[in-house]
């Protein structure tokens, strides 16, 4: 049996599994739902013959995040290949009930159908396809699905780093771009939280005794937005600005949350330093700042290893009649963290999909079997 036929043979199971996963709410930190989807995936990997375990993860405060599913299978060769995906979505509880999984016009819809439930199931289907065809030239094939990618992989970073350092190649299962492109690089991203603390006072009787945190926040917002354009590729966005509780009180506290992104490491680091410095500048007398950088994820600029993986993917695609191109994108993912550990990485190896993080999110069902075959063929090629 060839890989394309094997992928089509696995397609009915893929579609049935996709419906089950999408119909379970598994937003980041929805531990109940994340346990349910992890349990399903673990059962399916065990049925496929993989040695599987669930790894409970927690954030820095000790709060539970759900379980990572880590499934392994030994082959006849020497090279280790990691397939990386995630189980969490960005949607709140109740979303699956309000807009459950459905198929319409050759596309599947529902929360997380593309990002990344369609991707993780493509990884499992690729493994099953390889086994159906007796292609076990890999030394070890590892499938990892984490519960916290959408919040910066705050609990899974150590696990990702360890697995990256144990593997020869990392293939990431975020879905392909809408035009079918694989992903060869991603911007780095960090959320910077700035808490401004001033002094409250009666706004009508003695405003001069106050230190206006909201005014400082407004001035800081302008200063931060003006950083856009200072470095090529860097974007700075004050996405959250909160201050005050009552109109007749000089605000004692204000909070900003800033999104900063860049596709170049040096520019990313310069921007983080500039934002921190700007936050500490005295913009209103009596107002001080506390700055915290949340889950900074470095840019993945691509590498010679990534270029070689693209070349091999194109060769496999030619054999399977699947056109292959690759492009960089602005969103970050676990590929950034894996690449930072030094392993060659290629991303976007799930099926074709789009409108991630929205109610219109979709997955192109006609792309599933060809992309599963492409992934399986790439694993077989790099393992050899």
TrEMBL record:
Annotated Gene3D superfamilies: 3.30.70.360, Zn peptidases
Q: PROSITE patterns per the record?
A: ARGE_DAPE_CPG2_1
User: What SUPFAM superfamilies does the annotation carry?
Assistant: Bacterial exopeptidase dimerisation domain, Zn-dependent exopeptidases
Q: What is this protein called?
A: Glutamate carboxypeptidase
Kindly list the organism's lineage.
Bacteria, Bacillati, Actinomycetota, Actinomycetes, Micromonosporales
User: Per the record, a Pfam family?
Assistant: M20_dimer
GO MF assignments: carboxypeptidase activity; metal ion binding
UniProt keywords (A-Z) are: Carboxypeptidase, Hydrolase, Metal-binding, Protease, Zinc
> What are the required cofactors?
Zn(2+)
């Amino acid at each position: 049996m060839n890989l394309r036929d094997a992928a089509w043979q696995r397609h009915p199971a893929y579609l049935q599994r996709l419906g089950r996963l999408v119909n379970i709410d598994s937003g980041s930190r929805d531990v109940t739902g994340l346990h349910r989807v992890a349990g399903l995936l673990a059962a399916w990997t065990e049925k496929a013959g993989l040695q599987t375990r669930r790894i409970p993860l927690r954030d820095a405060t000790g709060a539970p995040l759900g379980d990572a599913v880590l499934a392994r299978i030994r082959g006849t060769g020497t090279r280790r290949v990691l397939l990386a995906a995630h189980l969490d979505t960005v949607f709140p509880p109740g979303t699956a009930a309000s807009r459950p999984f459905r198929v319409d016009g050759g596309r599947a819809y529902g929360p997380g159908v593309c990002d990344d439930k369609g991707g993780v199931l493509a990884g499992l289907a690729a493994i099953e396809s390889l086994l159906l065809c007796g292609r076990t030239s890999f030394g070890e094939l590892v499938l990892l699905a984490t519960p916290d990618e959408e919040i910066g992989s705050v609990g899974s970073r150590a696990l990702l780093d360890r697995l990256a350092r144990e593997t020869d190649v990392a293939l990431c299962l975020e879905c392909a771009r809408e035009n079918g492109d694989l992903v060869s690089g991603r911007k780095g991203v960090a959320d910077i939280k700035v808490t401004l603390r001033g002094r409250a006072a009666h706004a009508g009787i003695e405003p001069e005794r106050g230190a206006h945190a909201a005014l400082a926040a407004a001035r800081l917002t302008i200063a931060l937005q003006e950083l856009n354009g200072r470095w090529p590729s860097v974007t700075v966005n004050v996405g959250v600005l909160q201050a005050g509780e009552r109109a007749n009180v000089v605000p004692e506290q204000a909070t900003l949350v800033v999104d900063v992104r860049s596709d170049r490491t040096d520019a990313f680091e310069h921007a983080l330093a500039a934002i921190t410095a700007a936050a500490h500048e005295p913009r209103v007398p009596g107002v001080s700042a506390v700055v915290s950088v949340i889950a900074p994820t470095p840019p993945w600029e691509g590498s010679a290893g990534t270029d070689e993986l693209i070349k091999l993917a194109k060769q496999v695609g030619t054999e399977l009649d699947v056109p292959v191109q690759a492009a960089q994108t602005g969103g970050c993912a676990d590929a950034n963290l894996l690449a930072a550990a030094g392993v060659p990485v290629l991303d976007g190896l799930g099926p074709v999909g789009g409108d991630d993080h929205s109610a219109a999110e979709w997955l192109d069902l006609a792309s599933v079997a060809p992309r599963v075959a492409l992934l399986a063929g790439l694993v077989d090629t790099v393992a050899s």
